[in-house]
Amino acid sequence: MTVRQKNRGAAAVLAGVGAYVPPKTVTNADLSAHLDTSPDWITSRTGIEERHVVSAGESSVDLAVEAGNRALKSAGTGTVDMVVLATTSPDRLCPAGAPEVAHRLGLGIVPAFDLTSACSGFLFGLATAQGLIASETAESVLLVGAEAFTTFVDPADRGTAVIFGDGAGAVVLRAGSTDEPGAIGPVSLGTDGSHADLLHIPSGGSRQRSATGLGHGLDVSSWYLQMAGRTLFQQAVARMTEASRSALEQAGWPVATVDRFVGHQANLRILTAVAKRLEIPAERLFVNIDRVGNTLAASIPLALTAAASGGELTSGDRVLLSAFGAGLSWGGTTLVWPDLVTDAPL
Ligand code: COA
Question: The Beta-ketoacyl-[acyl-carrier-protein] synthase III C-terminal domain covers which part of the protein (predicted)?
């Protein structure tokens, strides 16, 4: 299948998926060896058994290139018009990582930019790609969610070190029509900046650099993620439920017609609480947090690729996507799963 077809249309249609996780794994037992926690606590409170983490020198762009390459192969193409990289753990504050991803994938001098919306980044990326395609700015977009976020997590903080993992997922979107399989439905998005401090990295940006930066009494912990877990949990359940309902309503889908709910893998208890509120049976919920942890913007494309390659998502399935993250930010959308070529299971 080529994504450079001349069939321009209003919809962004899924043409390929791919994912990559770094080879190094960290189990709950590994973490329990140096943190005041236990494998039982981590599994029962989060659903996570292990996560993949980058090795020294390995970065979000490295992961993005691997996932992007697989998505291009899945789409059967070597070219796209634009590259969007959703990440909260950029290689550098400047420049954006997307141009390097495009370069390393041999995509040439295409427009490429980063998008930051934490764990909702993939949903904001889908809406962005949809707009680029609908406005005929691009006929095809490579959208990658890639995170080496464990590099921003304090390894000594048991409240956050047990949750996050690294990885990347990517999709190729092409211009098409709204009624064909793979067409991304209306994307429902929202943010609430009044809760920005619930999940944040205080230093590294302009506020701390100008006021209390290095050499001015900066506490090193402010370079790491700080998270109000319990409050976020409640917000995540409420907002993911709201985003899901809104996306279903905009698509005109009764909830009973959803075959697969692929939500942001933040915490198994969050996912099951959202599914319960939506009255989606537990067996329709896709779960891979046990193997990868919370991978922020990579979470949903990683889950989609894992579900499709593992046979848990097949052509014709009606899929609901929903995410929540720092910002606060949230989003949801729908699609009918198309007939795609996928890699062997991760
Ligand atoms: N091991 C053992 N105990 C731990 C622990 C760990 N790794 N982390 C926290 N605790 C302790 C706390 O200190 C607290 O102890 P206390 O009762 O003596 O004060 C107790 O466990 C309960 O803490 P709480 O934060 O209420 O636990 P929880 O059941 O809410 O689970 C999270 C904590 C972080 C797993 C959960 O709140 C969560 O997943 N929140 C959402 C996080 C998230 O999704 N972030 C990204 C947004 S996309």
Answer: 248-337
